[in-house]
Amino acid sequence: MAKRIEVKDLDIYYDKFLAVQGVSMTIQPRSVTALIGPSGCGKSTFLRTLNRMHELVPNARVEGSIVMDDDDLYAPSVDPVNVRRQIGMVFQRANPFPTMSIYDNVAAGLKLNNRRLKKSEMDDLVERSLKSANLWEEVKDRLQKPGSGLSGGQQQRLCIARAVAVQPEVLLMDEPCSALDPISTQAIEDLMLELKANYTIVIVTHNMQQAARVSDTTGFFNLQGVGKPGELVEIDETTKIFSTPSQKATEDYISGRFG
Amino acid sequence: MASTTEAPPRKDRAPQRPGDRIFAGISTGSGVLILLALAGVAVFLVTEAWPSLTAPAEDIPGGEGLALYIWPLLFGTLISAVLALVIAVPLAVAIALFITHYAPRSIAKALGYVIDLLAAVPSIIFGLWGINVLAPVTVDPTTWLSEHLGWIPFFAGPASSTGRTMLVAIIVLAVMVLPIITAVVREAFTQTPKLHEEAALAIGSTRWEMIRMAALPFARSSIIGASMLGLGRALGETMAVAMVLSASGGVSFNLISSENPPTIAANIALQFPESSGIAINTLIASGLVLFAITLVVNMIARAVINRRKDFSGAN
């Protein structure tokens, strides 16, 4: 588990509009990579190209390459469904399936593609996933209750359990704490630090303290102006980005001097 | 220290604005009006049906009593409406899915428009189409069915030579209820939260799995509701069935013979002009039965929808 992702000269287009330009980075396995930057700079867009979720938007396309270990994610023969099996995603708003119980939410990914698991195997996997999302103790007595009855922070951890249940290589998180209170945020951050032992984690966040707390590497995205494409200004060790960044724009942004 | 704190004089009511009061009045009035109309219909049906309920059996048309008069009608009504739904609901769900999840935008729009147009066609047109086009076309296939699949009760035969069979009535009804079901289900599918679709895709589901995981459960109660709407229309449909169905027989599952049970609504339409006295009361009694089953159908639908309320996503 946990793989390295190499991104090279990635341009992201919506139809003819160039949204993000020239991103190159290496995402290290078993570490947390945080992407920060102002709204609209393309960091979420970039995150969604890593598991080809951006393709849900009609006419979205990329140029350049994204290679996970030795597999080109955009090779013509690659099925995006398989990419998403290996690269899981957690969204800004917790989105457990409202029609399913807590148990079924976690098991949802395990039932896909006609995979048949024995009841006991399924129970084990659900328990292990909920444990690794630090949710097991809170829900073990109500696994058959609807997932939408949980609190916001619990729902987000349920989504993390659902994502790790299919045993992906990489976990993408798109502002996972932006709708949560500080205590739930703390729980998710602790969880990320635990999960990085087994997964490659990429997180988009607006909260710079959060990036500083949880990540090993931080990338700063920015855009030159309205209508211009977003770009990766620099990416480096988190301690370096938050102490002595090499770019003026990064320093301005993290010190709050940014517009 | 004995201090008695006098409660400040309470205003009896919060101030009310005339706009609020007028609107509350209008909406309450409308609600009451609906109940009154429903009660009025029920009272009318019961009082007019009453003489036939108390009349001796030999006075009822057919001479065997009210229950035996209505039973074939009820059977014909239920079998035609239910089988029409069996055809229409899966088709409607499939069309709605195609429009919302598979078709390119331009085709989806055109198709949706055509389906809506279908809903605007008067039922007499469907009756004409059934009797002039569909009925003759079915003669050969139903003959084949009765010869080769005659062991299935539905196709026992002998096949009608005119094609004015229960099968044709069912198909016509299915086409008639298709647009309303499709429209309601399509609306539900377009409202499937993007969040849930993305959640399904992000754990590696295919498009069909995403639909099964996110879209169908979300639309479930709408599908049930739409089916009940369609069932209501199929139960009450008069003209098309009256034209298409050659009704002469009693209770039978045989869908392709020339002897079919009539339906309540079509029977009322056909018999009413030539009836008088107790025969009219009898027809109205059959109408009362139709009214009752429509109520029951709706109550069952409610119960089904409410049973899994916790999981509906509305909380």
Automatic annotation (TrEMBL), chain A:
SMART domains membership: AAA
GO MF term set: ATP binding
Alphabetized UniProt keyword annotations: ATP-binding, Nucleotide-binding, Translocase, Transport
SUPFAM superfamilies named in the record: P-loop containing nucleoside triphosphate hydrolases
Protein name: Phosphate ABC transporter ATP-binding protein PstB
Domain ABC transporter: 5-248
Entry keyword Transport: yes
Organism of provenance: Prauserella alba
PROSITE patterns: ABC_TRANSPORTER_1, ABC_TRANSPORTER_2
Keyword Hydrolase: no
Automatic annotation (TrEMBL), chain B:
UniProt topology in membrane: Multi-pass membrane protein
The organism's place on the tree of life at top rank: Bacteria
Domain ABC transmembrane type-1: 74-301
UniProt function note: Part of the binding-protein-dependent transport system for phosphate; probably responsible for the translocation of the substrate across the membrane.
Organism of this sequence: Prauserella alba
Chief place where the protein resides: membrane
Name used for this protein in its record: Phosphate transport system permease protein
The gene coding this protein: pstC
CDD domains: TM_PBP2
Keywords: Cell membrane, Membrane, Phosphate transport, Transmembrane, Transmembrane helix, Transport
Compositionally biased region (Basic and acidic residues): 8-20
Region entry Disordered, spans: 1-20
TM region positions: 21-46, 66-99, 111-131, 166-185, 278-301
Subcellular location: Cell membrane
Family: Belongs to the binding-protein-dependent transport system permease family. CysTW subfamily.
SUPFAM superfamilies listed in its UniProt record: MetI-like
